[in-house]
Amino acid sequence: MEPGGEQRKNLEREWRISRGLSDIVSIDVRKELGVDRIKIEEFTPFVEGDPQIKSLFERVIAACLRYAEKFDRFWTFRNPELLESLDQQERRTVLGDSDEMRHFADNATRATLSAFARNIRHKDPEFADRIETILNDSDRTKATVTFLDLARQYQNQQERKNQAA
Q1: Taking the model in full, what pTM does it have?
Q2: Taxonomically, which superkingdom (predicted)?
């Protein structure tokens, strides 16, 4: 296997994307953001029936995939021996790409959740306020994890309402 081939294979496994709302789209940012995994399918209940939100998620996912090649180069050279074999310029390029990906992942997540809060405000202002509060938290890892918890709570709340109706 070529140098870094195993890392590339693992990365490709993490960047799974298919068409349709029920498909799983996982962005593994464990090393980058300190979060186990952001799963876009967690947001599926919010996206269903709202073409604007669906379009927003599709754009963010497409943008993330455009960065996959740079992210791939970073993971390929994560191996210290491989990193050591690079010249100074190559090393700067690889490490720069990883920083760019980290900032991009954080910004894309925040922008997406912020837009979601704006879109849901007319339906559920209290939940939108909670999302905004979380997004204003300076600890981005906590903000992401807490949002996923909130998303599950909201989904459960909606399911209970539907069952009661």
Answers
A1: 0.36
A2: Bacteria
